[in-house]
Amino acid sequence: MADRRILGLGCVLAAAAALFLFWGLRGPMAYILELRMVKLAGLLSVGAAVGVATVLLQTISRNRILTPAFMGFDALFLLLQTGLVAGLGIAGSSRIPPLAGFVLDAAVMMGAALLLFTSVLRRTRHDIQLMVLTGVVLGLMFRTITAFLQRLMDPSEFSIVQTRMFAQFGSIDREALVMALGLMLLAFWWLWRNHAVLDVAALGRDTARSLGVGHDRLQLKVLCIIAALVSVSTALAGPVAFLGLLVTSLAHSLMRTHRHALLLPAAALISALILVAGQTVFERILRLQSTLAVVIEFCGGLLFIYLLTRGKIR
Amino acid sequence: MITVSGLSYGHGAKPILDGIDAEIPAGRVTALIGPNGAGKSTLLNLIAQQLTPSRGCISLDGMDAARIAPGRLARKMAVVAQNLTVASRVRVKDLIGFGRWPHSQGRLTAADHAAIGDATELFGLAPLQQRFLDELSGGQRQRAFIAMAFAQDTDWLLLDEPLNNLDLHHARNLMAQLRRLAEERGKGIVIVVHDLNYAISWSDHVVALKDGRIAFQGPVDEAASAASLTALYQTPVALTRIGGLPFAQYHR
Questions:
Q1: Angstroms from B94 CA to nearest CA on chain A
Q2: Residue B2's closest CA among B82, B61, B57, B72?
């Protein structure tokens, strides 16, 4: 029952991954290949996490222009990083082992997201528009607190923070990668078992409830999964704001369906494909080492506006 | 039978519903009528367990409705809400298929497909079944949602202003359809209707609300009189009979 379009995307992604691994392979093959494998795994997991998290957020908020970044998830991550450096200093914050850092990031992200959104959802009586608005305001608040802390820092501390503020695919930590993969597999396992109920949730709270779906609990579970996936992607590579929006638009216009069984894999594959292909072009053709995310945001933005004006995205 | 006792909703000086006692007979068409802001939709949503009352309770065929598990309730009662928008790209046939969710949780059996086909035919949606919901007119979308609720195959069907977007032809067909469901399949139907003539000529029973309280209730022929309707809407209503059916004249 595998869809032809999903299979096609899978094949293109496999080809892009092979190109990334084997193009221009010289010198100590085993060593370079290993380095590239780690980077490839990082790109694939970040891509899948961003794609899936954005589709999920858009489903439960019933809004097709939201991304986790919009709701302040990324801003929370930046605040966390800045707070660590500001609180512990350069020496202190660099003494945290990467693995512990990842666990801390992920735990704080999930905890904070749950706490924030459960209380917000209860107060707003499950009004999703209000929740979105609250998310935007909170994101703004996180950003201004971050900016304030950065003003107070000395320049060398600030430069450390700055390197963490943009997505980096160059330096992916292996232990963190294993943790991330584990967390992601758990999230994907849940989605695999529950994808059909997400289709019902997309009909809206009233309709879902009249069909006997416990919409509010489902919403909380999905928010938790989004927090986990965002922490996977931000902890591995830093924030990638625009990618999710581009990916879900492409996934929706390619699949033209309401079924998450198709939408979620499509979004994960497209997102991973953009990252792997982008990184390949970036490293092998342009021979650049700087941050891919900036280019993705720029090109992604242009492509998005183009598709929107041509009416290809609905 | 649905029994509503001592039901209130909303707090403060002016609750939306205040001490409602009502009985809605099974296997009949019941219309909830009343002026704007009387609390008709709120009452419907409370009965449907979409809202939680601040006081009072609702019993559904002898059971406390609030204690019925959501999955089980969805096999006893289907609801069509007033604002129907869908964010994702759903085809009409898939939407009707969602009506089978309480029975099969997304894995459609032969019986489910039969029920979906039945609902599609009954509401004249066969020519539209491959279309996306966002490509339909308001009235067509409304019919698709009603077909979904019908496919749920429940004893009770609750509809909040189902005639809103429908033209004469489809409005009349829908009411005839609902009547037939009550008479032939014994379903209890509760509708919020604004058009007084649709309410009194098609329904068996009427519950009239005004300012969050019951104004009158009972079988249409007994409860809906010229005097009671005039008082309800604060507008002169004259009642005549055309072809054996009541007709309200209130236009001028």
A1: 9
A2: B61
pLDDT tens digits, residue range A52-105?
A: 999 998 888 877 777 887 777 778 878 887 888 887 777 777 777 767 777 777
pLDDT bin (cut points 50, 70, 90) of residue A135 is confident
Structure tokens at A179: 């943790």
Neighbours of B243 (CB within 10 A): 6
Q: CB contact, 8 Å: B76 with chain A?
A: no
User: Tens digits of per-residue pLDDT, A29-56?
Assistant: 888 888 888 888 888 998 899 999 999 9
Mutate to test the interface with A, among B88, B96, B146, B190 (most CBs of A within 10 A): B88
Name chain A contacts of B150, Cβ cutoff 8 Å: none
Q: What is the pTM of this model?
A: 0.84
Written as one string, the DSSP assignment of A40-108 is HHHHHHHHHHHHHHHHHHHHHHT-TT--TTTTTHHHHHHHHHHHHHHHHHHHHHHHS-HHHHHHHHHHH
Nearest to B218 by CA among B207, B229, B210: B207
* pLDDT (0 to 100) of residue B230: 93
Beta-carbon pairs below 8 A across chains A and B: 75
Chosen from B89, B142, B158 to mutate, greatest number of chain A CBs within 10 A? B89
Residue B209 confidence (pLDDT): 94
One-letter amino acid of A314 = R
Say whether A207 and B84 touch across the interface (CB within 8 A).
yes
At A214 the pLDDT is 82
CB contact under 8 A, B134 and A314: yes
Residue A167 pLDDT more than 60?
no
The residue behind tokens 């309730």 is B73
Pairing of strands B29-33, B205-210: parallel
Using the beta-carbon criterion (under 8 Å), do A210 and B105 form an inter-chain contact? no
Mean pLDDT of A137-147: 88
Q: What distance in Å separates the CA atoms of residue B250 and residue B252, rounded to the nearest whole number?
A: 6
For testing contact with chain B, the best of A211, A254, A264, A312 (most B CBs within 10 A): A211
Please compute, for residue A153, the number of CA atoms within 13 A of its CA located in the half-sphere on the CB side: 24
